[in-house]
Structure formats: C-alpha cells, structure tokens
Amino acid sequence: MGVNVRKRGKYWQYRVELAPVDGVRKYLARSGFATKKECQIEGVKALEKYTYTGVPYKVSDISYADFLDKWVKDYAEINLKYHTIMTYKNVIKNHLKPNLGNYKLVQLNSYILNEFMTKLYVNNSYSKWYMRGILKILKSSFRYACDDLNYIPYNPALKVHVPKYDIPPKDPAHIFTKEEIERILDRFKDSPSIYYSLMTAYFTGLRLGEVYGLTWDNIDFENKTLTVNKNLVKKLQEGTKENNRHSKGGSTCAWYLGTCKTETSYRTIPIGDRLVKGLKELKRIQEINKKQYGDSYIKHYVKEVRNRFTNKPEKKIVSATSELKVAYPECDFIFVKENGYFLGTDQSKYCMKVIHYELGIDCRFHDFRDTHATRLIESGADIKAVSKRLGHSTIMTTYNIYVRVTNKMETDTVKRFEDYSSIVDIPKTTDKPYIND
In 172-230, which ranges are E strands? Predict the structure, then answer.
C-alpha cells in the first residue's frame, strides 16, 4: 500500500489504495495539484490518516467555534429537549467559544482540552456537576465530528476528565421535616393555587413541569388517581434573541405542552384521601371564581404550531378572556390565579423565595420530590412501587439519585442488625483477676 502520483492533464493527482471490498480494489484519489511535490505531500498525509484511522476522513479547516454552530443546528436542536439545547448554548457561548473557538477542529487534542477543563475549574471553582455537564458537551460534539462527519480521526475528549475534588460535593437536596412542611403550607393557606400545588408535589413526588402541567382531566376523583401525560415547557418566542428573555411590553416567552422526560414518566398513580379532598376544594374555589369574574375570567387553549428546530408539530398555550370565542381546544389547568391567569412554573419562583428568605428553609422545588421518595422508603415502601410512582426507568435511579439516607433509616439499620444478632450474649464478668491461660 502506498501513494501513486501521476499527472492528469495540467494538474497532478494522488491515489491511495484502500482495503479491498469483496476482492475488488478500492482507492482514495484527489487531483488538482499544481506541482508534483505538493501532490506527494498531500498524498502522504492522506495515507497516514487512512492508516491511522482505518477509514478516510474529510480534511476540514473549520474552526471549533463554527463547528459548534453546525453541531447545535444539525444535531442538538434536532435530537435534544428545549431546555437542554438552551443550557448547551449558554455553555458554548460562555466557555467553549471564548477558550477553544479559535482553534481549528483538527488541532484540538486531549492535552488542550484537559488544560481547558483544569483552568476553568481553578479560575471559577465550578461544582463537579457543572464541570461534568461541560465535559458532556465536549464529548458529544467531538463524537459527532468523528463518528458522524469524519472530520477528525478520533475523539480527543474521550481521555478528558473532570478535575479531582478533594471535598465531596454537597448534596443539594433538602429533605423536609414534618414540621417544615406544616410551616410551608400554613404560610400559603390564603393562596389556594400555591398551597395545593405544593401539597400535590409533596404527596405525589411529581417533577416541577409535571405539577404545573396538570389539567383537571388528569384527576380521577372517583378512582383516586392522578395521570401524568405531559410536561410544561417555557420557550422563547420565535425571533427573540436568546439573551433577551424580556422586553418592554411583556414577556418574550410562551408556555408549551411538551413530552414527559422519559417513556416511564407517563404514568397513572394512586393518590390519598387528603390530596383528593384538597383538590376537590381547589376545584370548588375555581368554579366560584369563574362565576365571579364572568367574561373577564381567563381561559387557556392549545394551539398546534411547528417546532422551529425540527418542524414537527407541538402544542402552544394561548390565552383569552371568557367572552372571546376561541376555536382551539381548551386546556383547563389546575393551578391558576384567582382570575384564571396561568403563571406556569414561574409560580414556584415566588413561593421558593418566601420559603427561603421568610421561613429560613433553604430548598428547591425538587426537594418535595426528594422528600416524597425518601419518606416512602423510610416507611418501608416497596422500592419497585416507589420507582414506578416517580416515573423512573430503573430501581437504581431511585436508589442513587432520589433516596437520601436519613437519621431514622440509619438507626433502623443498626436496630435490625441488633435484633438479628440478639443470640450473642454479653458474658457476665466477675471481680476475680484475669488469668492468662
């Protein structure tokens, strides 16, 4: 196997023999070189690259910055969920382009990428989870360049690692005590929408977008079940710049009904009498509000539009007062303000600030989900049932991510072993001196 150089008209051409297919010889050829020397140099490069990778790849002078734009458009925007796309774009804008964007894609190697990760950690002290997220983007983008486009012979990010953390990262979860839950609910007892949304999160373990995406047809009062079949997503309006989320005259965002996180996130779960009673009370209050506000009560509808990235149909929420006749199907959200106005997941921002600053409880909305899972396990619930209730694909996800060890669980573990080992008696001691046999 070698490089064959020959003149074709006014220009020179090199030809590299590849591995035969079905006994037939295959070649990689390129022409258009003005001199024989230039042709030989490029031919040797092509041979080395083919020999090194086993397959020919396209030689590209594209910068990593331009390639990232291509990767986002051709891969991320087509295959990933909206919030993941927005997160990736922010990382690319703030970290990858400023630090690596000027390199040619083929120049970047494991040493440069590891140096980038180390400096980013040293200069900013980012959390381990954030650094892992950046590394995930590096690996995915270079995998696309290598495996899908053949722009590079290998993925240099495979040997890149997150800097070692001497101190284990702090678990961000806060498991609510019974007293804390009572204080939180008591604080919002005069705000029905907030009160019952937090109560629903606590009693079901639903995710943030699942809670505020609930509509009244998801609740079966007779059979005491709750169905999760959609997820609420907030998106920038088409044509809005990503760094300008709000402008004069109103929000530049809109609400959409998206798909659930995973296939197993679509689920119907049983709910207890307390939550059933609470939701019935909320529905009664809403019916009264509808009559009081009359034509000015706000209703919400589902409008089918096209996704600007994939061109696939998706469901956008539009609103109008009751006096207007709207041709779209109505979407009867559970958690709305007194006049019917829908805040979506933004409603949680206000109550989380109150809980944090006024009540002095440092928490996130997701902690209601963590608490629900942990308390179920703590009380002896079957882990399979808990996993299904949370919408997890595997039991290990429930164990590793959502179930935290509590003092009661640790104490119960010791007590179980003590009960098991009760056959071992402590020998009685005497006052006689110990004699070594």
Answer: 219-220, 225-228
3-state secondary structure 38-82: HHHHHHHHHHHHHHHHCCCCCCCCCEHHHHHHHHHHHHHHHHCCH
Considering the entire predicted model, what is its pTM?
Answer: 0.74
**381 or 249: whose pLDDT is higher?**
381
- Helices 273-293 and 192-204: crossing angle in degrees, nearest 10, is 150
Residue 370 class from Cβ within 10 Å (0-12 exposed, 13-18 middle, 19+ buried)?
buried
Tell me 432's DSSP state.
S
Number of Cβ within 10 Å of residue 176's Cβ equals: 21
Give the C-alpha separation, 303 to 318, whole Å.
Answer: 7
pLDDT at 342: 97
Burial label, 76 (beta-carbon count in 10 A; 0-12, 13-18, 19+): buried
For residues 43 and 1, is the Cβ–Cβ distance under 8 A?
no
Q: Measure CA of the first residue to CA of the last residue in the chain; give whole Å.
A: 83
Cβ atoms of 18 and 46 closer than 8 Å:
no
Give helix 178-187 / helix 192-204 axis angle, nearest 10°.
160
List all residues 6 or more positions away from 41 whose beta carbon is below 8 Å from its beta carbon: none
Give yes or no for a contact between 373 and 398, defined as CB atoms under 8 angstroms apart. Answer: yes
pLDDT per residue as tens digits for the range 393-425: 888 888 777 666 666 676 776 776 667 666 555
Question: What pLDDT score was predicted for residue 247?
Answer: 42
Cα–Cα distance for residue pair 365/367, rounded to 1 Å: 5
Query: Exposure pattern of 319-345 as b/e (b: 16+ CB <10 Å)?
Result: beeeeeeeeeeebebbbbeeebebbbb
Query: Among residues 159, 158, 147, which one has the least CA distance to residue 57?
Result: 147
